[in-house]
Design brief:
This protein has about 130 residues and is α+β, with helices and mostly antiparallel strands. Helices cover about 40% and strands about 35% of the residues. The protein has 2 domains: about 1-95, no CATH class; about 95-130. It comes from Vescimonas fastidiosa.
Length: about 130
């Protein structure tokens, strides 16, 4: 009986250590990439993972020699966006299928509208300062 627990525990620990290697903050927020013209790109991803483990004794003797078991794990990494840093300004560049609904399009346009409002305010300040 003790051998069975050890076998199952070892299988679970081995599988979980591999999952831990794949599922880390470095996978979600990737290493920055700097282009020759000074633009820095930081990849952002979405992670999904699953894990299962099971085992059983076969036959009448439960000494651990008739134990069979297995583990399975899966990880899915989907690219979501890039953070684009240029001249001290950070923008989000989504990596997605274009929005289909009106609400999705409005949400996608918010960063562009905010940029335009910000530039308008900056221009307004410049003209009033002179």
């Amino acid at each position: 009986m003790e051998n069975k627990k050890t076998n199952l525990s070892e299988m679970m620990e081995t599988a979980m250590s591999k999952v831990r290697e794949m599922v880390s903050s470095d996978t979600v927020i990737g290493q920055p990439i700097t282009t020759p013209d000074g633009v820095t790109l930081v990849p952002v991803s979405r992670l999904s993972f699953g894990f299962s483990c099971g085992g059983s004794d076969f036959g009448k003797v439960t000494d651990g020699k008739n134990f069979a078991g297995g583990t399975a794990a899966g990880v899915k990494v989907d690219p979501v966006a890039f953070l684009v840093v240029k001249d001290g300004v950070t923008r989000v560049m989504p990596v997605a299928i274009p929005a289909m609904g009106t609400a999705d399009r409005v949400i996608e346009m918010i960063p562009q509208v905010m940029d335009r409002v910000e530039s308008f305010i900056d221009k307004k300040k410049e003209t009033t300062e002179f």
